[in-house]
Fold this protein.
Amino acid sequence: MQLRSCFLFVALALRVTAQNFEPDDFNVTQALVDRGVNVTAIPGLSSLAGQSSNQACSIACNALQIVYGSNYVINQSQAAYDTFTSGYWSLNQANVNPYCIFKPSTASAVSVLVLLSRLTQCPFAVKSGGHAAFAGASNIEGGITVSFELLNGITLSANQKTASVQAGQRWGPVYRELAKSDVTVIGGRVSEVGVGGLTLGGGISFFSNRYGWACDNVDSYDVVTASGALITASAKDYPDLYWALRGGGNNFGLVVNFNYATISLEGNNMWGGTRTFLESSFPQVVNAFSKVVADAEQDKRAGQWVAWLSYGGTKLAAAELWYDRPDGNKSNIFNNYYTIPAVSDTTQNRKFYGYTDDVQSNNPYGLREIYHALTVKADSDLASLAKDIFFEEIPSVANVAGVNPVLLYQGITVPQLQKMKQNGGNPLGLSASDGPFYLIHVACWWQNEADDAKVYQMVSRVLKRIKTEAESRGKQNDYIYMNYASMFQHPIESYGATNQAQLKSIANKYDPKKVFQTLQPGHFKLDRAPVPNSEFSLE
C-alpha cells in the first residue's frame, strides 16, 4: 500500500479557504461525528459540549480506548506505561507522568486526538523520537502523550526523487532503508533522534554545506490542523504554512509525514570520525576550526564540530570531521587539523547509517540532560576565549555525580545560509550577508535532580560570559537554534520581530483557537520560553 493512502480520511469532506481556514461556527462535536466517532455513545463526551472538566483527561483517554482499542492506549496501571516513559533519552522527560499514552497508527486517528483534546480540554504532547532534553518537550504531566511510533512508514517515489517519511520514524532506519537505493535525505546525525522534532526545529545534517538544513529540503509536509483537517503544505499549496514549518516548531499543526527531497549517496559511503587533541594544541585547533568555517565555499563536502571537555582532569578537544564521500582526509580543507598531533584518530571511510550509530553511542540514555545555546559571528579570537571561559567555570560542578559538561562549536557557514533562501526561504532570520556564524552550545548530563540548579547555574554562567564578550566585540547574533535551546530560552523571538509576528499571524490563520499554543503547551511556543523569566536565561 502506498504511504499516502494512509492519509485518506473516511467520511472527511472538509473544505476550507485560505482566508477562513476554520469557520467561526466550527463544531468540534460534529467534526468528530464526521470522522466516525459516535460521541453520544461514549461516556462523558456528550455532556461536555466543548467545556472544560476536572475529569477531562479521564474522559478523553477512555474515549480513545473505546474508539481505537486497548492496543493503542496505555494507562498508568499497565506495565507498558513505565516501559514507555523510561524510553525517553533524557531522564528529565522520563520523569513526567501523562494520564495516558496514545499511539495512533493513521493520520485520521491523529485528527480524532486533536478534536477530542479540543472537546474535553485535555492537553497533549507529541513524541517523535523523544530526544529533547527538558521535561514537557514531548511528554506531558497529567495529559495525553501521543507517541507517533506506529506512524513509521518510509516510501521512496518511483523516480527516487522524494522520500516520504512518517513522523514517528528515527533517522537510523530511514538511512538504512534509503541506502538500498543509493539515496538518502538531509536529516539528523544521531540515529535514534526522531525525524519530527529535528526537522521542525531546523535540522543540521552531515550534508548541510552542500544542501542546507533538513527544513530546507522538505518538498512538502502532511499536516493535521487544529480543525482536524489533513492538508499538504508546499511551496505551491499553503505556502505560508510551508514557510512557517521550516523551523517554526510544533506551533501550527501536527506533521504526520515529511516528503523529503533525496540526494544521491552511492553505496551509502562517506568518511568521518574524531581527532582528539591535548591542551597544548588548543590554539591550533581553534585556528583549524575557524579556517574550515571560513573556507566552506571551497569544499562544500566537508563538515565539522569541535567538542571541548575534561576527561579525568585532562582537558581535551575532540574534532569531529566528516566528508560526504570516501577519503575525506585527502581534502585540503582539513590540512590544518592534520598538522596537529592527535592523541587518537577514528576518522575512516564509513557507511553513513553506521556513522550515525557511532554518534548515538556517545548520547547515552537515562541521565539528566541540558542543552543551552547561542550564536555569534565567526571570530577566532572569540572562539579561543569562549573555551577558556568554559574551562574556568566547570570546576564548580566537579562534585556533581555523573556530570559531563561539554562545550561544542559548529559553523553556520555561508553555503548553509545561502540554501536557506530556496523554496521561499525559512523564518530563522539568518542572512548569508551577515555570516558565517559559530553555533556555540553547552551540553551536560548528570545523575541527580538535586544537582539541577548547580548545573544550570554553571551552564548559564558560561554562556552569559561568552555572550557578554561577543557583544563587546560586536560579534553577537540573536539567533537561537531551536534543537539546542534550553527550556529557559525563546528561539522564536530570536528569529526577529518581523518573522515572529508573521509566524503568529500564520498560526492564527490555521489555528484561530490557539489549540497548539494552549492544549499542546510543551516545547517552544510563539510567545514564550518553556520556563520564562528564569535566572538561568541569557538575558
Observations:
- Residues 1-19 have pLDDT under 50 and may be disordered.
- Residues 452-472 form the longest helix (21 residues).
- DSSP finds 18 helices and 19 strands in the chain.
